[in-house]
Amino acid sequence: MKLKVITSNPGKVAEYQKAFDELGIEMEHYRLPYDEVQTSDLEEVVNKGMDEIVSKGVRDFIVDDTGLFIDALKGFPGVWSAYAQKTIGNQGILKLMEGVEDRGAEFRCCIGCDIDGRRIVVTGVCRGVITDAPKGTDGFGYDPIFSPDGKLTFAEMSVDDKNRISHRGNAVRLLIDALKE
Ligand code: IMP
């Protein structure tokens, strides 16, 4: 069995392959642009994207969407995380959080899988806090300013340590459980 990973990020394909090895499912990188609807709900973005992909005749695929939801900013940047990262970046987020006492935030990763005509949509969450300053050099995106335990940031952890507790790791585990059923 082969699943197409529909993404512009080849790094994700390797990550999924590692997780799906145990099910004997092979991952294939597939580039197919699709619309990301304007909504504050990740699952809606994923479901609408899947509808569009299926309407183009493509089946047996995975898509995902991730967002960082900051409590004190009423969930911003959320579904606009990619745009916020490209524009204001981590420094911009830290500026918005200057003097803010409530540092609570969570990453959410929603994965949609179309397999054998069946649709599975799961969301993995990782709660933590926004740090006062960037820390660490590993990882990507918001990793240097997000700490799951208030001590180390994701950018100070190994990939394996991050995956054990991360939103994406949790989402992949939920998907694999659902596929085993
Ligand atoms: P995407 O949905 O995977 O494209 O992610 C949306 C935005 O969130 C992008 O700017 C990513 O860099 C960022 N992002 C996604 N996953 C993570 C993560 O695990 N750590 C830090 N930033 C992330």
Q: How many E-type strands?
A: 7
Low-confidence stretches: none
Helix share, percent? 25-40%
* Hetero compounds: inosinic acid
Describe this protein's structure.
- This protein has 181 residues and is of the alpha/beta class.
- Helix content is 34%, strand content 27%.
- It is built from six helices and seven strands; from the N terminus they run βαβαββααβββαα.
- It has helices at residues 10-20, 42-55, 81-87, 89-96, 159-165, 167-180; strands spanning 2-6, 26-30, 61-70, 77-78, 104-115, 118-130, 146-147.
- Strands 1, 2, 3, 4, 5, 6 and 7 form a seven-stranded mixed β-sheet that branches.
- β5 (104-115) and β6 form a beta hairpin.
- The longest helix is centred in the first third of the chain and has 14 residues, at 42-55.
- Residues 65-66, 81-82, 85, 139-143, 154, 166, 168 line the site of inosinic acid.
Notable features of this structure?
single chain; alpha/beta; seven-stranded mixed sheet; 7 strands; binds inosinic acid; 181 residues
Helices and strands in order:
Blueprint: E1 2-6, H1 10-20, E2 26-30, H2 42-55, E3 61-70, E4 77-78, H3 81-87, H4 89-96, E5 104-115, E6 118-130, E7 146-147, H5 159-165, H6 167-180
Parallel strand pairs: 1-2, 1-3
Antiparallel strand pairs: 3-4, 3-5, 5-6, 6-7
Helix pairs in contact: 3-4, 5-6
This protein binds inosinic acid.
